[in-house]
Amino acid sequence: MHLPIIAPSILAANFAKLGEETRTVLDAGAEWIHFDVMDNHYVPNLSFGPMICEALRKDGITAPIDVHLMVSPVENMIQDFAKAGASLITIHPEATIHLDRNLQMIKDLGCQAGIALNPATSIDCLDYIMDKLDLILVMSVNPGFGGQKFLPSALKKITDIRRKINENNLNIRLSVDGGVTEYNIQSIFKAGADTFVAGSAIFGKPDYATIIKTMKDACR
Ligand code: DX5
Ligand code: ZN
User: Fold this and answer.
1) Do the annotations mark residue 134 as ligand-binding?
2) What is the DSSP string of 140-192?
3) Is the CB of 116 inside a 6 Å radius of any atom of ligand 1?
4) Prediction ipTM score
5) Which of 59, 88, 133, 137 would be 175's cystine partner, CB 3.0–4.6 Å?
6) Atom of ligand 1 nearest to the CA of 11
7) Which domains occur in the chain, in start order?
8) What is the pTM assigned to this prediction?
9) Which residues of this UniProt protein bind a divalent metal cation (predicted)?
10) Can you give the pLDDT at residue 80?
11) Distance 199 CA to ligand 1 centre (A)
């Protein structure tokens, strides 16, 4: 299993100070930046696009940017985010009719590829695409908004996917997204996740270093 990674979702950051917030949370010990892209079509909310990702890169952010595309269609955004400096691009199977082709497109553009599974989405769709995946993102809330409550059904899904990854000896990160806090992170880690997206639990605190350390300490 991979070393645990904390990926703060800047959806919960102060947008008026996005560059500063991003640097602060990385200096506080976060490994990745989670970048939630919402289109008011696939999900009922609107966030930010590739120009903001590019602006963070131009501002000197070198850490991996983990782009979570909650958009449909996906093709244009895959291309634009690859150009804008995304490290990893994750898409939802429901958002495209050509999942395999789009995962390959992400790889061909030089990024790592991920798939995000909504709470009601079965893990069966993983079977024929596992070889193209660098990350599986288990949604522990319905996508569209930060600050929602963790759905406990995600724990069984994480356990089932961890088994699949280990049985096939695959080098795939297993991420969880939605309602992750310092209180539930240990049970999520024990279920088999190695990558933890957290928005409000981190940006809602006055001291990012303390909360990130608390979360990391819970994962061992
Ligand atoms: C939900 C997003 C999440 C969310 C996490 O659609 O994908 O990344 O912002 O936020 P919290 O940690 O506040 O649930
Ligand atoms: Zn996300």
Assistant:
1) no
2) SS-TT-SSPPPPTHHHHHHHHHHHHHHHTT---EEEEESS--TTTHHHHHHHT
3) no
4) 0.97
5) 137
6) 9
7) 5-217 (3.20.20.70)
8) 0.98
9) 34, 36, 68, 177
10) 99
11) 6
